[in-house]
Amino acid sequence: MTPGHGIWDLFTSSTFLSSSTPIKINFKMAALRFVKSVLLSFQKESGLEPRLFGENLRVTAAEPGRVDFELDIKKEHTNRLDIIHGGAIASMVDLGGSLAVASKGLYATGVSTDLNVTYLSSGGRVGDVLKAVVKCDKFGKTLAYTSIQFTNSKGEIAARGSHTKYIALAWKHPENAVDQLSPQK
Amino acid sequence: MTPGHGIWDLFTSSTFLSSSTPIKINFKMAALRFVKSVLLSFQKESGLEPRLFGENLRVTAAEPGRVDFELDIKKEHTNRLDIIHGGAIASMVDLGGSLAVASKGLYATGVSTDLNVTYLSSGGRVGDVLKAVVKCDKFGKTLAYTSIQFTNSKGEIAARGSHTKYIALAWKHPENAVDQLSPQK
Amino acid sequence: MTPGHGIWDLFTSSTFLSSSTPIKINFKMAALRFVKSVLLSFQKESGLEPRLFGENLRVTAAEPGRVDFELDIKKEHTNRLDIIHGGAIASMVDLGGSLAVASKGLYATGVSTDLNVTYLSSGGRVGDVLKAVVKCDKFGKTLAYTSIQFTNSKGEIAARGSHTKYIALAWKHPENAVDQLSPQK
Amino acid sequence: MTPGHGIWDLFTSSTFLSSSTPIKINFKMAALRFVKSVLLSFQKESGLEPRLFGENLRVTAAEPGRVDFELDIKKEHTNRLDIIHGGAIASMVDLGGSLAVASKGLYATGVSTDLNVTYLSSGGRVGDVLKAVVKCDKFGKTLAYTSIQFTNSKGEIAARGSHTKYIALAWKHPENAVDQLSPQK
């Protein structure tokens, strides 16, 4: 990308290069900015995310390999027991895995191969906030492995999940930022 | 329930008892009717099902222990690649498992413990129909085990899943029809 | 391979080519022979299979994409409840997935990415036979997807599983028979 | 149990009660001692554990809800690629889940309902040590939920897993130590 345009100014601007701020903090800022841009793309270009989550799902923190997000539970997320639906949580395992892959610098986030969810406790009712931390445990050329844990408003583990993604084709996307966010690879 | 009211007329009417139609067919009719009533309850009382699936998801066949259903894929079910979203499929693994439990006679269908999905091929695009067959492989007093397979419009296995449900409390629901649909238990 | 040597004589001999036996049956014979040769290789070259299963595990049928096998349950397969151990079943989900991949013609069978097992009923005690049917549901260049179901001596589903394998490197093995067993690919 | 007999002397002896050592440390000591006694019971009474792991698997630390253990990889744990077999790891997901349940005070550890393993990197070769940390994430009257992570000798996540256990019947075992190790429940 050309310096001066879009989110990667952060990396190319002289402010960034000459910054005395520790690089780790800049990495976090860059990762957070990039993950938010990917979530925005989901909200704009995907069908399910705006329908099911919209403004109710927020990324609260990110660094390369990890994303924290939370959901304001609304009626549309619930089941007949008036608690958050297993399908809503499973959908966030999927979306969260994509965000974790994004935190490593992929704008395109591949397709799912395996997704597992274990439900331990109620995730909460309308008005509660469900928090999630998702990690990219391995980031390979072909496969990415992510894991997620959800915490309800009582501080209990509500659910945990695993999401394996096939990302071989995602490496070609022009808006990727892998060089910036996963420089070791 | 009192004879003459609601869906269980089928079982209590003299027409049913004296019927010369093979019992197996009546079982299927009863199961289909009951599963459809449970799906209707999901559409009315739950939050996620009407938001995400609504009229686009139809039960096409049922017998005790098995339900066939299909989804007209709409924009709201898709991801950024314009194919059906892994979260939409995972939500149908959850809902489908509940319908399979319903096919055994439970109106209340318990809560999830473990849900797995494996994604093999694209489930299709807007305008395609995704078909699913879900089975209740074991129906115990505490746990029910269900498995599901999705077939895309090319006839390929798009995904398969497993859903384990904790149903101990579901046995108490007044609208259950276990005696009718799972008479052996 | 040169005609006249090894297991692929079956495909190259004139007997095969001029056979009036339906090709489907020859496919089954070839698949069974090949899968048995792969199992033999596991017994000889691997560490876990001879230690845990040895002669007690037998392939009883195979065709491209499907393998039937069974285990004579011995003391070494059991847990403290004197029934077959979840780890023994999980090990057979892994091994079975490899055999299903072999039934499509791969002698090398790749590495695991995800393995799931759901345990429905006891698999049996010492002296019982546990039967398994494993299928290769999709056989791609990079990933193979297999599923398995175990039936105990009462005819109940004891367990079912899913096993996803990364097979990109397995395609290079000189003893593969993919052209013969998966000619459509 | 009568004071003066068996492993629970630890809890009943005056040394324990009058100890000035912080209670948390005594909990850890008690949990470690108890988990080791359960592992010993597996080695003596089960079939698979002595066959497959024996002295090569050691518990290195424990506290209520968490167990650390490690395996010296031997030939019998390997696959045809001479690295640790997916089945050996899956068996340790199962065994590890049982040990995590034991760390909460159950001597009997129930039966499996769902077991998932995701394989990220090679677990190692003969001579390497594979380390595992397993946690009991929820300990209910009917179900216990455990999760595990394996680290290879390079410090990479080799695999992670989830194991859900049905423990309703395990609560009746006379050698349980739940009152001591899970006093809050």
From TrEMBL, chains A, B, C, D:
Residues 83-157 form the Thioesterase domain. The keyword Nucleus does not apply. SUPFAM superfamilies: Thioesterase/thiol ester dehydrase-isomerase (SSF54637). It comes from the Eukaryota. GO terms for molecular function: fatty acyl-CoA hydrolase activity. Keywords: Hydrolase. Belongs to the thioesterase PaaI family. PANTHER family: PAAI THIOESTERASE, THIOESTERASE SUPERFAMILY MEMBER-RELATED. This is Acyl-coenzyme A thioesteras-like protein 13. The lineage of its organism: Eukaryota, Fungi, Dikarya, Ascomycota, Pezizomycotina.
